[in-house]
Specification:
Length: 241
């Protein structure tokens, strides 16, 4: 009994099982595009930073303010940015992954700490010990954010402005808390408010561009998105947001 055969492109006959094996060797590409994760991450940061920084600047606040601040800072600023971090991995955006991951984790930690303060477990947030500890945390955050601001210069001016004001505000808060210079704390807090406004602008520009399919608000883009080609053996995959 003769074996069924098929012809290749050259016209020569070959058994069907051989042809099937050749077809299975072909690489299949399955694209999984995602919306820009920084839309969510930047909006989450903007909301949390504005509220907490306004409290640090003395614009509002009483003894019961932490009860209102901590759950929303933890969820809106922390969890939202943490979700943006996971999707920034998918978008191959190292800068967004680092910034959302670090600051999202900070907001979650801030929320947990404030919850413990309200429960009366650790030292009050206004105690000298807690102030110095917060200052050292802001030293670390400032160092990481300055690195992010330097990296953002390769992307766009809006992101650079956001991270620069955030790093500067974190630096002043670090000095004010560690060196016991309370006059610097409200100044650093105001810079955090400015960074929140920059984050809001950048997120809104990304949102409008994603929704309308064209730039609406200028971002000051300095490099174009990576072309969809065979970069790093990932044909059809676009890196970044």
């Amino acid at each position: 009994m003769s074996q069924e055969s098929t012809k290749d492109t050259a016209g020569t006959a070959e058994p069907n099982d051989v042809a099937g094996a050749r077809e299975q060797e072909h690489t299949q590409i399955s694209l999984s595009p995602v919306a820009p994760p920084s839309i969510l991450g930047l909006y989450g940061f903007a909301a949390a930073a504005f509220m907490v920084a306004a409290n640090l600047a003395g614009w509002f606040g009483t003894g019961g303010s932490p009860l209102v601040l901590f759950p929303f800072a933890m969820v809106v600023g922390g969890f939202a940015q943490f979700l943006a971090t996971t999707w920034s991995f998918r978008a191959r955006d190292g800068l967004a992954t680092a910034m959302h991951g670090v600051w999202g984790s900070f907001w979650i930690g801030y929320g947990i700490y404030m919850a413990l303060v309200l429960a009366g477990l650790p030292a009050p947030a206004a105690s000298p010990v807690a102030q110095v500890a917060f200052g050292y945390w802001f030293i670390a955050l400032a160092a990481i954010t300055w690195a992010g601001a330097a990296a953002a210069t390769a992307h766009n001016a809006a992101l650079t402005g956001f991270l620069t004001t955030l790093a500067a505000g974190s630096t002043l808060l670090a000095i004010g808390f560690v060196a016991s210079l309370p006059a610097l704390v409200p100044i650093g807090a105001v810079l955090l408010v400015v960074s929140a406004l920059c984050a809001y602008y950048t997120a809104t520009a990304l949102l409008l561009q994603s929704s309308l399919g064209r730039p609406v608000l200028p971002l000051g883009t300095r490099t174009r998105s990576a072309p969809i080609d065979d970069v790093a053996a990932e044909p059809g995959v676009q890196h970044g947001q």
